[in-house]
Amino acid sequence: MTERPTDFSSLPSFRAPRRQLFSARKFALMASVVAGLGVAVYGFSPSHGPVDVFTSSAHAQVSTEVRKVEKPIGFADIVERVKPSVISVKVNIAEKTASKDDSSGSNEDSPFQPGSPMERFFKRFGGPDGLPPGLRGGPGGPRGGRGPVSGQGSGFFISADGFAVTNNHVVDGADKVEVTMDDGKTFTAKVIGTDQRTDLALIKVDGRTDFPFAKLSAGKPRIGDWVLAVGNPFGLGGSVTAGIVSASGRDIGSGPYDDFIQIDAPVNKGNSGGPAFNTDGEVMGVNTAIYSPSGGSVGIAFSIPASTVRSVIAQLQSKGSVSRGWIGVQIQPVTADIADSLGLKKAEGALVAEPQASGPAAKAGIQSGDVITAVNGEPVKDARELARTIGALAPGDAVKLNVLQKGQDKVINLTLGQLPNTVEAKVDTDKDKGSATKGTDEPRLGLTLAPANSVAGAGKDGVVVTEVVPKSAAAERGFKEGDVILEVAGKSVTNAGDVREAINAARSDNKNSVLMRVKTGGSSRFVAVPLAKG
User: Fold this and answer.
1) H or E stretch covering 20
2) Closest CA to 371 of 222, 515, 192, 176
3) How many CB atoms lie within 10 A of CB 394?
4) Out of 205, 233, 281, 381, which could bridge 162 as a Cys pair, Cβ 3.0 to 4.6 Å?
5) DSSP 3-state of 149
6) How many angstroms separate the CA atoms of 301 and 132, rounded?
7) What span, in angstroms and rounded, lies between the C-alpha atoms of 517 and 1?
8) What is the pLDDT of residues 275-285, one digit of tens each?
9) What is the pTM of this model?
10) Which residues is 305 bridged to in the sheet?
């Protein structure tokens, strides 16, 4: 096994008092001058007289001792072993694919879902086309304009017979894929399968069974571990950068399965799809995105963990696509206010905002307002962890869910369905509020309410928010005109009186906040609103 880089703290200390350093320098200078004349230099010992302290043989001994001082070991041995497995991935995109979104100005190279928080973030702080160039990774520019488009990314072989991993956004829509090895040899590759949700793709080079390949790590990296990023930045050819693992479990807003490793090894445009190696020479992650206002590395890069890569690639290799478990619920995090309103000791678990009528969860008895706290006995920390846990299971698997339902702990068994390939967007709809602005006030919350059945298009259930007082408790929690409050403190409401009654009951129970189920457009969510005292 290659010896790991030595901790710099193990080096011997050469600090000395200033006077000693000065004297040593004077002595060394005198010694070098005299030695140049071929004269031996002597010192004096109080008890033994003259002592030979500097001769040519003594100088050789000193040099030998200096060479024996332990020095930090570099990464050359590791790089020499793993670099041949890393490839450059070049893609060509046909004209019809490249120009299909000319009118919309969209950027298909983004790994972030349209409308996601990270897409909006990069549109504000990114490059001229909405995303920083370094984030796009593989392709050399936005896929707009006319004529064929080419771009470059990175990847790595995972088997001797030519299977290789890269990013989905590197090869998405590619008409032709070409890979170049570290020794300069070029091959044509075909796309075996892609997974947009994790931004992974599996490609294959045929004709050989002796490709150098890398091994996926079975362990989980620790914050502070060394990491080597190998790839093809800016199309320059194979390059290596080093850094450490900065964080883990990062959510960058690209989807419900975000669980990225954050590294500070410089990762630039063209590194997308390339591996991040640990000091054992194993792939700890696949580099997929960076934060960069300028397009160059600023020390914040994100890698897909090896555990995710292993499970996704196995499915792509066996059937060309990925199937994920699905329970059919809309979930949200349990905040401190929500935990308080539900009587939970900790803000943990996943709150069910709404189960889909035909989904496995609804059929098994899960209801809006339930908190899923564990899956198959393993605690669920938050909504993202529930999504990842269920998504890692196969459709048809039987699971046991621990659920807090109306204050009671329950165990619900169900069989997972298959996650639909397409997800319908939830869009806010405009409502004709008519004369409903004369609804009943709930001044302590900052809301004006009216029965839903009195507002055209609002439906028959709940009460409609017709006005929100700026800077009120409701405004701070995201309420807006047209929202429909369906439940307050677990009870259905049909008018402002029901809302006020539920709020007063919560105050009587010494609650600091009250939980409301709110419908916006076609989706619903729970909102914990703080209660004013008195």
Assistant:
1) helix 18-36
2) 515
3) 11
4) 205
5) strand
6) 13
7) 57
8) 999 999 999 99
9) 0.62
10) 285
Name the phi and psi angles at 371, rounded to 5. -115, 120
CB 154 within 8 Å of CB 272: yes
> What integer is the mean pLDDT of 57-66?
52
DSSP letters for 389-405: HHHTSPTT-EEEEEEEE
Residue pLDDT, tens place only, 288-309 = 887 766 656 677 889 999 999 9
Q: Establish whether 272 is a catalytic residue.
A: yes
Tell me the DSSP string of 359-378.
SHHHHHT--TT-EEEEETTE
What is the pLDDT confidence band of residue 269, given thresholds at 50, 70 and 90?
confident
Q: Helices in 455-514 by DSSP H: which ranges? A: 473-476, 496-508
Could you give the CA distance from residue 332 to residue 303 in angstroms, rounded to a whole number?
25
Catalytically annotated residue among 88, 154, 246, 272: 272
Active site residue 59: no
Question: What is the structure's pLDDT at 412?
Answer: 95
Cβ neighbours for 13, distance < 8 A, ≥ 6 positions apart: none
Rounded CA separation 467/449 (Å): 7
> For the purposes of burial, counting CB atoms within 10 Å of the CB of 22, is it exposed (0-12), middle (13-18) or buried (19 or more)?
exposed
Catalytic residue, from 109, 199, 340, 498: name it: 199
Cα(482)–Cα(181) distance, integer angstroms: 58
Domains of the chain: 8-67 (no CATH), 74-322 (2.40.10.120), 325-418 (2.30.42.10), 436-530 (2.30.42.10)
Backbone angles phi, psi at 456, to 5 degrees: -60, 130
Which residue shows structure tokens 């709809």?
A: 429
273, 167 contact by CB (below 8 A): yes
Range 354-380 burial, b when 16+ CB lie within 10 A, else e = bbeeebbbbbbebebbbbbbbbeeeeb
Q: Which of 490, 491, 500, 492 is nearest to 448 (CA)?
A: 500
Interval 354-404: pLDDT, tens: 888 888 999 999 998 999 999 999 999 988 889 888 988 889 999 999 999
> Is 169 noted as a catalytic residue in this protein?
yes
> Rounded distance, CA 114 to CA 253, Å?
10
Out of 169, 172, 303, 370, the active site residue is: 169
